[in-house]
């Protein structure tokens, strides 16, 4: 019972110690700060990849016949989301980083603005290309036989091809412009004028579209994001270094603390062992390991009030060996000592766990039988002890025959005083010795007569 | 992107035939290669790849189909609907979101311009499919735009100090809010519920069914109109899932536009979504044009430099009517 309690307390103590050290480590280490910086760096990488995706979609618009603006817009929305996350994660960082991120936000909003311009230009350009194509096709079929106008139309077709190519960043050789049509009718001149007008418009559109396209490839953006990455990495390295030193310190401190505690515990245990040993030697008999006379009176003093309280009976069995002296004389003291040890083993095995056995003289033993209801119970226990211990003892090939004489006194039926209880039991024991040895006698008031 | 639609039941019902025919055609052209493959696993991979090619052809249309959201939190949606029509959210308790975005009128109000405001009110239906919100396109997310609308005194001017206690007294609201949110009625939760309703107002049209493979979903004239729409170049700007709403353009690209009365101020605005356009007259940012056909004519003249015949205009109008959401 005591041992388990002690272990329990120790476990709780060690747990609280571990918790305290862990809490201190979390509070004073730089771990949180380091993790925040690491997170922001990862977020910057996400942001960069979102930006790359956005660029890919912007490029795809140029190469697609029917560009899907939804795709590029969703890439832009994704970029914005990553940007918001990045801003949240770097909100507590130092000023220079704040400035860089603010610049990054301005640059990306500029990029978005130029993307919007670019998309509207692309829509118009695609439209003009298609429109001019249909117009030329229509005019071709209308003036199939008119050579003057066909020459012009061929020129216009070539110019359209040049413009389509230049929209894809491919530059073709320009063709010479044909001389103005002298014999053309008014209607034909109008058609030529219309085609020329649209060609000019388309040329402008292609230029505008190129200009808008160039606007969102900003080298400043790349430089800024690289710079930001470097800055974040450098503060990460700093924070991590601080964290590492604190970590080592905490680990050292913990190790020292643990060693000290272990040494202290060992010392305490040693002290406990010594004190416990001293105490046991004070109350036990060195030969048999049973309690001695001192412990008997101590226990009696404790047991009597507790029995009074619980209203139950306490029996005192006074045991004396018959013929122990002759064993000592015939076989020697060694055999006598061994006999006593064997006897004490038999006694211990024949009583209940709560009952205690004491050796108070050379061959005199006392057993305290606790918590009884009736006198008969004490007598039956004494009887069973007798039958067990009266059997012969085989010691070093010598067969020794010893019997027990037992006197029984009962608390509170006979007396309530511990000294008298012992005395009555002694008297009863003498009575059984006189009555022929090897029997149990219970004390009664007229036993002396 | 397009094979996301594979998972929807609707597509499986409508489009399975067309997918199979497309697959069949593809397989016939690559039949030798297909039968040369021995293991079933590689055959399966080939089928998947071919199916994805078949879907790619679907994605090359300028207009992408939209699908109704499947797993809706109905309670939250109903709560958002209640808040959407609640006049207590406005400053003088005389208007709600529904006043300008009447679902019966295609998500708009049918007026030239709402009182005090500079632009004709656009439709609320399918608004979450737009990349830019509002005529100016200042917002690319619904939440900041909704917060702005509620805060602006010209529009709603919500008095939160009045609204929250009033809603707390309302038994229906307190029951609904406490069953959906942890902290009951608060500004954030009210905005969240409206936002949920608004962003899930996705109503597909007959044309989406056509795009998903149901050939008979729209009339022949509408199909012809769709071809005109693509050929004349309307689809250069009005494209994507919401038939617009993803780029900016000014009115009068080819021929400057002065307006009906000559008061139109040209500026770069968001290209509006053409879904539900037939229901949301009057047209343009100033709401001066009343008929759809007139609007088509003006757009063709000033944006594309084309003069359309009456039949072409009718066909395009039929196509635009097929973009109307199917209401339940």
What does this structure look like?
The complex is a heterodimer of chains A (449) and B (328). With 449 residues, chain A is of the alpha+beta class. In chain A, 71% of the residues lie in helices and 9% in strands. Chain A folds into 2 domains: 4-231, no CATH class; 293-442, Reverse transcriptase/Diguanylate cyclase domain (Alpha-Beta Plaits). Chain A contains 12 helices and 7 strands. The mean pLDDT of chain A is 85. Chain B is mainly alpha-helical. Chain B folds into 3 domains: 2-59, no CATH class; 74-199, Cytochrome Bc1 Complex, Chain D, domain 2 (Orthogonal Bundle); 206-321, Cytochrome Bc1 Complex, Chain D, domain 2, CATH 1.10.760.10. Helix content of chain B is 45%, strand content 2%. Classes of the chains: A alpha+beta (449), B mainly alpha (328). The A-B interface holds A 66, 68-71, 73-74, 76-77, 80, 116-117, 119-120, 123-124, 126-127, 130-131, 134, 198, 201 and B 1, 59-62, 64, 131, 137, 140-141, 231, 233, 235-237, 239-241, 246-250, 253-254, 268, 303-306.
Can you give the helix content of chain B as a percent range?
A: 40-55%
Please, what is the CATH homologous superfamily of the largest domain in chain B? Cytochrome c-like domain
Shape of chain A: rod-shaped
Distance between the termini of chain B: 28 Å
Instruction: State the separation between the terminal residues of chain A, measured CA to CA.
Output: 49 Å
Report the count of strand segments of chain B: 2
Poorly predicted runs of chain A are none
Summing up helix and strand content along with how strands pair, one would put the structural category of chain A as: alpha+beta
- Could you tell me the radius of gyration of chain B in angstroms? 23 Å
What's the helix count of chain B? 13
The structural domain count of chain A equals 2
State the low-pLDDT regions of chain B, or none.
1-14
What is the fold named in CATH at topology level of the largest domain in chain B?
Answer: Cytochrome Bc1 Complex, Chain D, domain 2
